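Protocol check, entry for the methods section draft. Step 1: assemble the input record (protein sequence plus ligand SMILES). Step 2: submit for complex structure prediction. Step 3: store the structure tokens unaltered in the notebook. Ligand used here: zinc ion. Step 1 record:
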Amino acid sequence: MKLHVIGCHGPYPVAGGATSGYLLEHEGRALLMDCGAGVMGRLMRLWDPAALEGVLLSHLHFDHASDLLVMRYYLEIVGKTLPVYVPAEDESPFRALLSAPAFDVRPYPEKLSILGLQVTTLPVRHPVPCRALRLTDGEKTLVFTGDTNTCPGLAAFARDADALLSDAAFLEAEWTEQKPHLSASGAAELAREAGAKALYLTHLPVRHEPESLLREARKIFPQAQAVHPGMVIAL
Ligand SMILES: [Zn+2]
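Step 3, stored output:
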């Protein structure tokens, strides 16, 4: 598995950047996890969107899904329909916008097989329905938290992940249990509790340098890293 970080900021991009979007490549095929602002143009450099096996959306907040609205035009022009997986209980107006021939919108099944990977999901704690994703080829496992604050069962869901890609949107001084996201140290605690082999901080806030988030995370999980656009994580 090869995870290409396309965009990693939230809820809006840095100048010239992109919000949540990750291309996962496996054995010559690929899927897209999230498709936020600025992701479509960057994806065009890496992979033909019409050649994706599908799109896995953690949730339908705009910083995770808005560029599907322009990907739709491309897919319509080339005459392709992509499966798009969303949390079943989401009834937001945005979901209705995805009702187009370009997309076959489906709720996550209990077990999803795509790219030869087994994908399971966990509802996490965010203001709208959101899923953490666990993808494994039987040897290596990637877990993406989606957007979440602390969440019962999340550490068990992420158990022994080779790579944990975690929401880390706040410094500890800004964070409370009521916020929609984890802090960097919360992400580190999650990685430690899960026994993850590697932690990658994402959903990076534009107002802070990644170093300040890393400083807090590394007190708890010393090998923590922050992702950046263009980064490739090999699993
Ligand atoms: Zn969100």
